[in-house]
Amino acid sequence: MTRPNCNLTMQEILDTYFLENRARLLEIASFLDRVDRGGDGEPRQELDLAAEGAGAGKGDFRYRAFIRALGLLLEPGGGRTRAIQLCFSDQSTEPVESALGLKATGAWAGGTHEDN
Amino acid sequence: MKIIDPHMHMVSRTTDDYLALALGGIHTIAEPAFWPGFDRSGVASFHDYFNQLTVSEPARAARFKVRHYCWIGMNAKEAENLTLSEEVLAILPKYLDRPTALGIGEVGLNKNSRNEIRIFELQVALAAERGELLLIHTPHLEDKLKGTRIIMDILRNEPRIVAQRVLIDHAEEHTIAEIKDNGFWSGLTLYPDSKGSPARAVDALEVFGPERICINSSADWSVSDPLATLKTVNEMRRRGYPEPSIKRVFHDNPREFLSQCPKFSVA
Protein backbone atom coordinates (compact mmCIF):
# COMPACT_ATOMS: atom_id res chain seq x y z
CA MET A 1 0.00 0.00 0.00
CA THR A 2 1.40 3.35 -1.03
CA ARG A 3 1.79 5.82 1.80
CA PRO A 4 0.88 8.58 2.52
CA ASN A 5 -0.47 9.16 -0.99
CA CYS A 6 -3.62 7.84 -2.55
CA ASN A 7 -3.50 5.27 -5.34
CA LEU A 8 -5.45 7.67 -7.55
CA THR A 9 -4.28 10.75 -9.41
CA MET A 10 -5.79 14.12 -8.50
CA GLN A 11 -7.84 13.98 -11.70
CA GLU A 12 -9.14 10.50 -10.81
CA ILE A 13 -9.99 11.64 -7.29
CA LEU A 14 -12.01 14.53 -8.67
CA ASP A 15 -13.70 12.28 -11.22
CA THR A 16 -14.62 9.80 -8.47
CA TYR A 17 -15.46 12.00 -5.49
CA PHE A 18 -16.35 15.51 -6.66
CA LEU A 19 -20.10 15.06 -7.00
CA GLU A 20 -20.65 13.38 -3.64
CA ASN A 21 -18.57 16.01 -1.85
CA ARG A 22 -20.26 18.84 -3.71
CA ALA A 23 -23.50 17.45 -2.29
CA ARG A 24 -22.00 17.37 1.23
CA LEU A 25 -20.90 20.98 0.89
CA LEU A 26 -24.42 21.98 -0.08
CA GLU A 27 -25.76 20.06 2.94
CA ILE A 28 -23.53 22.17 5.19
CA ALA A 29 -24.59 25.36 3.46
CA SER A 30 -28.20 24.40 3.87
CA PHE A 31 -27.64 23.58 7.56
CA LEU A 32 -26.08 27.00 8.16
CA ASP A 33 -28.92 28.72 6.30
CA ARG A 34 -31.32 26.76 8.53
CA VAL A 35 -29.50 28.05 11.60
CA ASP A 36 -29.84 31.57 10.21
CA ARG A 37 -33.59 31.04 9.85
CA GLY A 38 -33.87 29.52 13.31
CA GLY A 39 -36.07 31.24 15.85
CA ASP A 40 -35.67 31.89 19.54
CA GLY A 41 -37.54 28.76 20.65
CA GLU A 42 -41.07 30.15 20.36
CA PRO A 43 -43.23 28.05 17.99
CA ARG A 44 -44.23 29.78 14.79
CA GLN A 45 -47.88 29.89 13.83
CA GLU A 46 -47.28 29.43 10.13
CA LEU A 47 -44.44 28.67 7.79
CA ASP A 48 -42.70 31.90 6.83
CA LEU A 49 -39.94 31.11 4.39
CA ALA A 50 -38.64 34.66 4.46
CA ALA A 51 -38.35 34.89 8.23
CA GLU A 52 -34.95 35.74 9.75
CA GLY A 53 -34.35 34.09 13.11
CA ALA A 54 -33.04 35.82 16.14
CA GLY A 55 -29.83 33.81 15.82
CA ALA A 56 -29.69 33.03 19.53
CA GLY A 57 -28.16 29.65 18.75
CA LYS A 58 -25.06 31.26 17.35
CA GLY A 59 -23.66 31.63 20.86
CA ASP A 60 -23.93 27.89 21.35
CA PHE A 61 -20.53 26.24 21.80
CA ARG A 62 -21.37 23.69 19.11
CA TYR A 63 -22.12 26.38 16.55
CA ARG A 64 -18.96 28.27 17.43
CA ALA A 65 -16.88 25.10 17.16
CA PHE A 66 -18.50 24.34 13.80
CA ILE A 67 -17.62 27.77 12.42
CA ARG A 68 -14.04 27.42 13.66
CA ALA A 69 -13.86 24.03 11.97
CA LEU A 70 -15.06 25.51 8.68
CA GLY A 71 -12.09 27.84 8.77
CA LEU A 72 -9.79 24.86 9.12
CA LEU A 73 -11.11 23.45 5.85
CA LEU A 74 -9.17 26.11 3.99
CA GLU A 75 -5.86 25.31 5.67
CA PRO A 76 -3.35 23.67 3.30
CA GLY A 77 -1.07 20.80 4.21
CA GLY A 78 -3.15 17.64 4.38
CA GLY A 79 -3.92 17.85 8.11
CA ARG A 80 -7.46 19.21 7.94
CA THR A 81 -9.23 16.13 9.30
CA ARG A 82 -7.04 15.84 12.37
CA ALA A 83 -7.21 19.59 12.97
CA ILE A 84 -11.01 19.51 12.89
CA GLN A 85 -11.08 16.51 15.22
CA LEU A 86 -8.89 18.44 17.66
CA CYS A 87 -11.09 21.52 17.27
CA PHE A 88 -14.06 19.53 18.58
CA SER A 89 -12.10 17.70 21.32
CA ASP A 90 -11.90 18.13 25.08
CA GLN A 91 -8.18 18.70 25.62
CA SER A 92 -8.28 18.82 29.42
CA THR A 93 -6.54 16.02 31.30
CA GLU A 94 -8.35 15.65 34.64
CA PRO A 95 -11.10 13.00 35.01
CA VAL A 96 -14.64 14.27 35.56
CA GLU A 97 -16.04 13.62 39.03
CA SER A 98 -19.14 11.80 37.76
CA ALA A 99 -20.53 10.72 34.40
CA LEU A 100 -24.12 10.79 35.64
CA GLY A 101 -26.32 12.75 33.24
CA LEU A 102 -23.49 13.54 30.84
CA LYS A 103 -23.82 12.92 27.11
CA ALA A 104 -21.47 13.37 24.21
CA THR A 105 -22.45 16.40 22.13
CA GLY A 106 -19.74 16.39 19.48
CA ALA A 107 -18.02 19.57 20.62
CA TRP A 108 -16.34 20.65 23.82
CA ALA A 109 -18.07 23.32 25.87
CA GLY A 110 -14.97 24.05 27.87
CA GLY A 111 -12.67 25.84 25.51
CA THR A 112 -12.01 27.50 22.21
CA HIS A 113 -8.86 25.66 21.06
CA GLU A 114 -7.49 28.91 19.78
CA ASP A 115 -4.02 27.47 20.10
CA ASN A 116 -4.60 24.22 18.19
CA MET B 1 -12.64 -13.17 -0.07
CA LYS B 2 -13.49 -14.20 3.47
CA ILE B 3 -13.82 -11.26 5.82
CA ILE B 4 -13.51 -11.02 9.58
CA ASP B 5 -15.54 -8.32 11.32
CA PRO B 6 -13.90 -8.08 14.75
CA HIS B 7 -16.57 -5.91 16.37
CA MET B 8 -20.30 -6.50 15.91
CA HIS B 9 -23.16 -6.43 18.44
CA MET B 10 -25.25 -9.18 16.93
CA VAL B 11 -27.61 -9.50 19.89
CA SER B 12 -29.14 -6.29 18.52
CA ARG B 13 -29.41 -7.51 14.94
CA THR B 14 -31.93 -9.66 13.14
CA THR B 15 -31.38 -13.17 11.90
CA ASP B 16 -31.67 -11.73 8.39
CA ASP B 17 -28.45 -9.86 9.10
CA TYR B 18 -26.65 -13.17 9.64
CA LEU B 19 -27.79 -14.27 6.20
CA ALA B 20 -26.55 -10.98 4.73
CA LEU B 21 -23.16 -11.47 6.43
CA ALA B 22 -22.85 -14.98 5.05
CA LEU B 23 -23.84 -13.91 1.54
CA GLY B 24 -21.32 -11.07 1.68
CA GLY B 25 -18.44 -13.27 2.82
CA ILE B 26 -18.27 -12.17 6.45
CA HIS B 27 -17.85 -15.62 7.98
CA THR B 28 -16.08 -14.83 11.25
CA ILE B 29 -17.16 -12.20 13.74
CA ALA B 30 -16.43 -11.18 17.33
CA GLU B 31 -18.99 -9.56 19.61
CA PRO B 32 -17.85 -7.44 22.56
CA ALA B 33 -19.98 -7.11 25.66
CA PHE B 34 -21.42 -3.62 25.86
CA TRP B 35 -24.23 -1.33 27.00
CA PRO B 36 -27.66 -2.34 25.65
CA GLY B 37 -29.05 1.19 25.38
CA PHE B 38 -30.40 1.20 28.94
CA ASP B 39 -28.89 0.64 32.37
CA ARG B 40 -29.44 -2.87 33.75
CA SER B 41 -30.93 -3.27 37.18
CA GLY B 42 -28.70 -5.98 38.61
CA VAL B 43 -26.05 -8.61 38.13
CA ALA B 44 -28.62 -11.21 37.07
CA SER B 45 -29.09 -9.29 33.84
CA PHE B 46 -25.37 -9.66 33.15
CA HIS B 47 -25.54 -13.42 33.73
CA ASP B 48 -28.27 -13.58 31.10
CA TYR B 49 -26.33 -11.33 28.73
CA PHE B 50 -23.07 -13.25 29.04
CA ASN B 51 -24.95 -16.51 28.46
CA GLN B 52 -26.50 -14.97 25.38
CA LEU B 53 -23.04 -13.98 24.13
CA THR B 54 -21.44 -17.36 24.81
CA VAL B 55 -24.29 -19.80 24.07
CA SER B 56 -27.28 -18.39 22.19
CA GLU B 57 -25.53 -16.11 19.73
CA PRO B 58 -22.92 -18.63 18.51
CA ALA B 59 -25.77 -21.06 17.86
CA ARG B 60 -27.78 -18.47 15.94
CA ALA B 61 -24.72 -17.58 13.86
CA ALA B 62 -23.86 -21.21 13.16
CA ARG B 63 -27.14 -21.68 11.28
CA PHE B 64 -25.58 -19.47 8.59
CA LYS B 65 -22.05 -20.88 8.85
CA VAL B 66 -20.90 -17.69 10.57
CA ARG B 67 -18.41 -18.33 13.37
CA HIS B 68 -19.23 -16.19 16.39
CA TYR B 69 -16.75 -15.23 19.12
CA CYS B 70 -17.24 -12.79 21.97
CA TRP B 71 -15.53 -10.58 24.51
CA ILE B 72 -16.61 -10.45 28.15
CA GLY B 73 -16.39 -7.35 30.34
CA MET B 74 -18.08 -4.56 32.25
CA ASN B 75 -18.81 -1.72 29.85
CA ALA B 76 -17.74 1.84 30.55
CA LYS B 77 -21.24 3.27 30.41
CA GLU B 78 -22.58 1.20 33.32
CA ALA B 79 -19.24 1.35 35.15
CA GLU B 80 -20.41 4.60 36.74
CA ASN B 81 -22.37 2.32 39.11
CA LEU B 82 -19.54 1.01 41.30
CA THR B 83 -21.63 -1.44 43.32
CA LEU B 84 -23.07 -3.13 40.27
CA SER B 85 -19.71 -3.09 38.52
CA GLU B 86 -17.98 -4.90 41.36
CA GLU B 87 -20.68 -7.58 41.31
CA VAL B 88 -20.23 -7.98 37.55
CA LEU B 89 -16.45 -8.14 37.83
CA ALA B 90 -16.83 -11.06 40.23
CA ILE B 91 -18.64 -13.15 37.61
CA LEU B 92 -16.35 -12.35 34.66
CA PRO B 93 -13.94 -15.31 35.13
CA LYS B 94 -16.77 -17.83 34.77
CA TYR B 95 -17.65 -16.47 31.34
CA LEU B 96 -14.07 -15.75 30.24
CA ASP B 97 -13.50 -19.49 30.57
CA ARG B 98 -16.15 -20.23 27.94
CA PRO B 99 -14.79 -21.67 24.67
CA THR B 100 -15.70 -18.70 22.44
CA ALA B 101 -14.67 -15.89 24.81
CA LEU B 102 -11.54 -14.25 23.40
CA GLY B 103 -10.70 -11.87 26.23
CA ILE B 104 -11.86 -8.88 28.24
CA GLY B 105 -13.82 -6.29 26.26
CA GLU B 106 -15.08 -3.93 25.36
CA VAL B 107 -13.92 -2.06 28.42
CA GLY B 108 -12.55 1.45 28.76
CA LEU B 109 -14.01 4.89 29.26
CA ASN B 110 -17.17 6.70 28.20
CA LYS B 111 -17.13 10.16 29.82
CA ASN B 112 -13.70 9.87 31.47
CA SER B 113 -15.06 9.81 35.03
CA ARG B 114 -13.30 8.61 38.15
CA ASN B 115 -15.64 5.63 38.55
CA GLU B 116 -15.12 4.57 34.95
CA ILE B 117 -11.36 4.77 35.46
CA ARG B 118 -11.59 2.70 38.65
CA ILE B 119 -13.50 -0.13 36.98
CA PHE B 120 -11.27 -0.02 33.91
CA GLU B 121 -8.16 -0.32 36.07
CA LEU B 122 -9.62 -3.37 37.81
CA GLN B 123 -10.33 -5.04 34.47
CA VAL B 124 -6.84 -4.25 33.18
CA ALA B 125 -5.49 -5.94 36.31
CA LEU B 126 -7.75 -8.93 35.70
CA ALA B 127 -6.53 -9.18 32.12
CA ALA B 128 -2.95 -9.09 33.34
CA GLU B 129 -3.56 -11.79 35.95
CA ARG B 130 -5.28 -14.11 33.50
CA GLY B 131 -3.20 -13.30 30.43
CA GLU B 132 -6.29 -12.17 28.53
CA LEU B 133 -6.43 -10.12 25.34
CA LEU B 134 -7.97 -6.68 25.83
CA LEU B 135 -10.46 -4.88 23.59
CA ILE B 136 -10.74 -1.23 24.56
CA HIS B 137 -13.72 1.09 24.03
CA THR B 138 -12.70 4.72 23.65
CA PRO B 139 -15.16 7.55 24.35
CA HIS B 140 -17.30 9.12 21.68
CA LEU B 141 -16.83 12.43 19.92
CA GLU B 142 -15.36 15.27 21.97
CA ASP B 143 -14.29 12.93 24.80
CA LYS B 144 -12.26 10.55 22.61
CA LEU B 145 -8.87 12.28 22.64
CA LYS B 146 -8.76 12.75 26.40
CA GLY B 147 -10.12 9.28 27.12
CA THR B 148 -7.71 7.56 24.75
CA ARG B 149 -4.79 9.25 26.46
CA ILE B 150 -6.00 8.30 29.95
CA ILE B 151 -6.54 4.70 28.79
CA MET B 152 -3.04 4.45 27.35
CA ASP B 153 -1.56 5.88 30.56
CA ILE B 154 -3.35 3.18 32.57
CA LEU B 155 -2.21 0.42 30.22
CA ARG B 156 1.39 1.63 30.24
CA ASN B 157 1.34 1.69 34.04
CA GLU B 158 0.53 -2.05 34.18
CA PRO B 159 3.85 -3.73 33.33
CA ARG B 160 2.21 -7.11 32.73
CA ILE B 161 0.21 -5.76 29.81
CA VAL B 162 1.79 -6.38 26.40
CA ALA B 163 0.83 -3.65 23.95
CA GLN B 164 0.35 -5.90 20.92
CA ARG B 165 -2.25 -7.90 22.87
CA VAL B 166 -4.44 -4.80 23.21
CA LEU B 167 -6.72 -3.34 20.54
CA ILE B 168 -7.86 0.23 21.18
CA ASP B 169 -11.09 0.62 19.27
CA HIS B 170 -13.09 3.47 17.75
CA ALA B 171 -9.84 5.25 16.86
CA GLU B 172 -10.07 8.25 14.56
CA GLU B 173 -7.72 10.61 12.76
CA HIS B 174 -6.66 12.42 15.95
CA THR B 175 -5.90 9.27 17.97
CA ILE B 176 -4.58 6.65 15.53
CA ALA B 177 -0.99 7.88 15.46
CA GLU B 178 -0.65 7.97 19.27
CA ILE B 179 -2.15 4.49 19.60
CA LYS B 180 0.17 3.02 17.00
CA ASP B 181 3.21 4.86 18.37
CA ASN B 182 2.56 3.17 21.72
CA GLY B 183 2.53 -0.28 20.10
CA PHE B 184 -1.19 -1.02 20.46
CA TRP B 185 -3.55 -2.18 17.73
CA SER B 186 -6.11 0.34 16.46
CA GLY B 187 -9.71 -0.37 15.56
CA LEU B 188 -11.53 1.89 13.09
CA THR B 189 -15.30 1.82 13.43
CA LEU B 190 -17.61 2.55 10.50
CA TYR B 191 -20.68 4.42 11.71
CA PRO B 192 -22.76 6.40 9.21
CA ASP B 193 -23.05 9.47 11.45
CA SER B 194 -20.86 9.43 14.51
CA LYS B 195 -17.60 7.73 13.50
CA GLY B 196 -15.81 6.98 10.24
CA SER B 197 -17.11 6.38 6.74
CA PRO B 198 -15.59 3.84 4.31
CA ALA B 199 -13.82 6.68 2.49
CA ARG B 200 -12.35 8.10 5.71
CA ALA B 201 -11.27 4.64 6.84
CA VAL B 202 -9.34 4.08 3.61
CA ASP B 203 -7.90 7.59 3.90
CA ALA B 204 -6.66 6.60 7.37
CA LEU B 205 -5.05 3.46 5.96
CA GLU B 206 -3.27 5.60 3.38
CA VAL B 207 -2.07 8.13 5.94
CA PHE B 208 -1.19 5.84 8.86
CA GLY B 209 -0.48 2.56 7.05
CA PRO B 210 -2.30 -0.77 7.42
CA GLU B 211 -0.03 -2.17 10.11
CA ARG B 212 -1.91 -3.05 13.35
CA ILE B 213 -5.21 -1.62 12.09
CA CYS B 214 -8.51 -3.53 12.05
CA ILE B 215 -11.74 -2.17 10.60
CA ASN B 216 -15.16 -3.02 12.00
CA SER B 217 -18.83 -2.15 11.63
CA SER B 218 -19.70 -2.22 15.35
CA ALA B 219 -23.21 -2.97 14.09
CA ASP B 220 -25.52 -2.53 17.07
CA TRP B 221 -28.92 -1.21 18.16
CA SER B 222 -28.31 2.35 16.95
CA VAL B 223 -27.51 3.84 13.54
CA SER B 224 -25.04 1.32 12.11
CA ASP B 225 -24.51 -1.00 9.17
CA PRO B 226 -23.55 -4.70 9.47
CA LEU B 227 -22.23 -4.63 5.90
CA ALA B 228 -20.04 -1.57 6.41
CA THR B 229 -16.86 -3.62 6.12
CA LEU B 230 -17.97 -4.83 2.67
CA LYS B 231 -18.59 -1.23 1.63
CA THR B 232 -15.05 -0.38 2.72
CA VAL B 233 -13.68 -3.33 0.74
CA ASN B 234 -15.50 -1.81 -2.22
CA GLU B 235 -13.98 1.60 -1.45
CA MET B 236 -10.48 0.08 -1.60
CA ARG B 237 -11.31 -1.56 -4.93
CA ARG B 238 -12.66 1.78 -6.16
CA ARG B 239 -9.23 3.26 -5.50
CA GLY B 240 -7.46 0.48 -7.33
CA TYR B 241 -5.95 -1.48 -4.46
CA PRO B 242 -4.98 -5.07 -5.32
CA GLU B 243 -6.84 -7.89 -3.61
CA PRO B 244 -3.90 -8.89 -1.35
CA SER B 245 -3.86 -5.37 0.15
CA ILE B 246 -7.58 -5.59 0.82
CA LYS B 247 -7.31 -9.09 2.28
CA ARG B 248 -4.61 -7.88 4.62
CA VAL B 249 -6.91 -5.29 6.16
CA PHE B 250 -10.13 -7.30 6.36
CA HIS B 251 -8.79 -10.79 6.99
CA ASP B 252 -5.11 -11.04 7.84
CA ASN B 253 -4.93 -8.18 10.34
CA PRO B 254 -7.90 -9.23 12.49
CA ARG B 255 -6.79 -12.84 12.27
CA GLU B 256 -3.31 -11.86 13.49
CA PHE B 257 -4.67 -9.96 16.47
CA LEU B 258 -7.42 -12.39 17.46
CA SER B 259 -5.25 -15.49 16.96
CA GLN B 260 -3.24 -14.41 19.98
CA CYS B 261 -6.08 -16.09 21.85
CA PRO B 262 -5.68 -19.84 21.25
CA LYS B 263 -9.46 -20.30 21.18
CA PHE B 264 -9.71 -18.36 17.90
CA SER B 265 -9.70 -19.81 14.42
CA VAL B 266 -11.09 -18.45 11.17
CA ALA B 267 -14.20 -20.03 9.66
Structure overview:
The complex is a heterodimer of chains A (116) and B (267). By secondary structure, chain A is mainly α. Among the domains of chain A are: 7-37; 54-89, no CATH class. Chain A is 41% helix and 0% strand. Chain A is built from three helices and no strands. By secondary structure, chain B is α/β, with parallel strands linked by helices. Chain B has one domain: Metal-dependent hydrolases (TIM Barrel, Alpha-Beta Barrel). Helix content of chain B is 45%, strand content 15%. Chain B is globular and about 50 Å long. The mean pLDDT of chain B is 97. Classes of the chains: A mainly alpha (116), B alpha/beta (267). The A-B interface holds A 1-8, 16-17, 81-82, 85-86, 88-93, 95-100, 102, 104-108 and B 80, 110-117, 139-146, 149-150, 172-174, 199-200, 203, 205-207, 209-210, 238-241, 245.
Secondary-structure blueprint of this entry?
The complex is a heterodimer of chains A (116) and B (267).
Chain A: H1 10-37, H2 61-72, H3 80-87
Helix pairs in contact in A: 2-3
Chain B: E1 3-5, H1 15-24, E2 26-32, H2 43-62, E3 67-72, H3 82-96, E4 101-108, H4 114-130, E5 133-137, H5 144-156, E6 166-168, H6 176-181, E7 185-189, H7 198-208, E8 213-216, H8 228-238, H9 243-258
Helix pairs in contact in B: 2-3, 3-4, 4-5, 7-8
What spatial form of chain B do the alpha-carbon principal axes imply? globular
Q: What's the rounded overall pLDDT mean of chain B?
A: 97
Helix coverage percent of residues of chain A? 40-55%
The helix/strand class of chain B is alpha/beta
* Sheet with most strands of chain A: none
The CATH homologous superfamily name of chain B equals Metal-dependent hydrolases
Looking at how many chains there are and whether they match, the oligomeric state comes to: heterodimer
N/C terminus separation of chain B = 12 Å
How many strands, which pairing sense, and closed or not: the largest β-sheet of chain B?
8 strands, parallel
CATH topology of chain B: TIM Barrel
Largest interface: A-B, 32 and 35 residues
Got a strand count of chain A? 0
Q: What is the strand content of chain B?
A: 15-25%
Order of helices and strands of chain B: EHEHEHEHEHEHEHEHH
Total helical elements of chain B: 9
Tally of helical segments of chain A: 3
**What overall geometry of chain A do the principal axes of the alpha carbons give?**
flat
Q: Which stretches of chain A are poorly predicted, pLDDT < 50 over at least 5 residues?
A: none
Structural class of chain A: mainly alpha
Q: Calculate the mean pLDDT score of chain A and round it.
A: 85
Rounded to the nearest angstrom, the radius of gyration of chain B is 17 Å
